[in-house]
Amino acid sequence: MVREGRKCVGIIFGGNSNEHYVSISSAKTVFKALNSKINKERFRVKTFYINKNGVWFDNNKSLEVLRKKRSDDKTQEYQELFNGKINFLQNVEFQSVDLWFPLLHGLNGEDGAIHGFLKFTQKPIIGGGILGSALGMDKIMMKKIFSHLAIPQVNYLAIQNHDLSDDNVKNKLSDEITEKLNLPVFVKPANSGSSLGISKVKHKSEIIKALEKAWRIDKRIVIEEGLDVRELECGIIGNLKLYTSKIGEVIYSSDWYDYDSKYSKDNQIIIPADIDYQISEQIKDLAIRSCRGLNIFGFARVDFFLEKISNKIFLNEINTIPGFTSKSMFPMLWNASGLNINQLVAKLIDISSDF
Ligand SMILES: Nc1ncnc2c1ncn2[C@@H]1O[C@H](COP(=O)(O)OP(=O)(O)O)[C@@H](O)[C@H]1O
Ligand SMILES: [Mg+2]
After folding, report:
1. Host H or E run for residue 326
2. 282 Cα to the center of ligand 1, angstroms
3. Contacts by 30-39 with C-beta closer than 8 Å and gap 24+?
4. Which H or E element spans position 282?
């Protein structure tokens, strides 16, 4: 039976980002949830896959990508296709979409790019808007606003407008970093994701290499004092009122949560995290204040450090399009808080706004 009046949800996934394959996995989870018995009554879905070259695919081709067993099938023809035309939206039919569900992680998506693009369609979008997404993605701007709001964060230095192809500049920066911050430090591109381009530096002699690695990804770099921490994460959903999920902890066996450990099978996720009630309340309060401060709404995952020695909380970062794969923290946090994945996606649609 064809049900009239069902909302058409446009899922956008893939994208020109180093988190392309994670995005495909996230889209598979959301697609399945929207096709669950309960959600099928209310929603229909159109899918829009963007390949690594930025070419958009229509619903039929996009569905083929979602139906493949593996999300990281690098051999698939779709990855390579690039028709070289400026009109990258040729033959892609948007008209019937009632609201958008962008699931593009990292650059060219989570940073507000897709939100700006979709604004022209004048349809509601699930998640935040352009400003909050861009601020949440940019570690320098995010930290500047957090300082202003007195949100606890680790000591840091921001490097921008420096020419790191110049050896003198690099040597000077290396001196400045060791004068102002205690080693170890984390050197990070201001805009990246999945820990790509990040180095943990224990000795001064390694700083320049780490700066060069981050510079290859972004010309704006953050250096942070490295602490010995537990890593706690909190989910946020809502618009006029923001709601927090339970707090989760991720435990990994490597020295820090680098790219390999993020996608390793050995990680453990513990929900609720084994922390004091006061700490959990402090995290929830900071999660809401930080999202409000950056104008982030809809949904987000806010990540914290709990310093082991001092038991102090520091805000690490906010992810404005958190992972939605079956093993991702965000849906697991909400599942533990009373919303299973089918209910979660329906809730996100119900609260989506015309930013
Ligand atoms: N200041 C820090 N002290 C201790 N560990 C850190 C620090 N900064 C980053 N890390 C480690 O690096 C990981 C990735 O850093 P993060 O800023 O979250 O980058 P991304 O945006 O790529 O996830 C963190 O999850 C943590 O394990
Ligand atoms: Mg992180």
Report:
1. none
2. 20
3. 30/101, 30/103, 30/324, 30/345, 31/66, 33/341, 33/342, 33/344, 33/345, 34/9, 34/345, 36/342, 38/342, 38/346, 39/342, 39/345, 39/346
4. helix 277-294
- Asked if residues 276 and 292 have their Cβ atoms less than 8 Å apart, the reply is no
- From the CA of 193, the nearest ligand is 1
Give the gyration radius of the chain's Cα atoms: 21
Helices (H) and strands (E) in the chain, counts: 13, 12
Query: Which structural domains are found in the chain, ordered by start?
Result: 7-127 (3.40.50.20), 137-152+228-320 (3.30.470.20), 156-225 (3.30.1490.20)
Which ligand 1 atom lies nearest to the CA of residue 225?
A: 1
List Cβ<8 Å contacts ≥24 apart for 280-289: 280/247, 282/313, 283/232, 283/234, 283/247, 283/313, 284/234, 284/244, 284/247, 286/151, 286/152, 286/313, 286/315, 287/234, 287/236, 287/244, 288/236, 288/242, 288/244, 289/149, 289/151
Residues lining ligand 1, Cβ inside 6 A:
154, 186, 188, 192-195, 198, 224, 226-227, 229, 231, 256-257, 303, 316-317
Per-residue pLDDT of the chain (355 residues; tens, 9 = 90+): 445 689 999 999 999 888 899 999 999 999 999 999 999 999 999 999 998 888 888 898 899 999 988 888 777 777 766 655 555 666 778 888 999 999 999 888 899 999 999 988 889 999 989 999 999 999 999 999 999 999 999 999 999 988 888 999 999 999 999 999 999 999 999 998 888 899 999 999 999 999 999 999 999 999 999 999 999 999 999 998 999 999 999 999 999 999 888 877 788 999 999 999 999 999 999 999 999 999 999 999 999 999 999 999 999 999 999 999 888 999 999 999 999 999 999 999 999 865 4
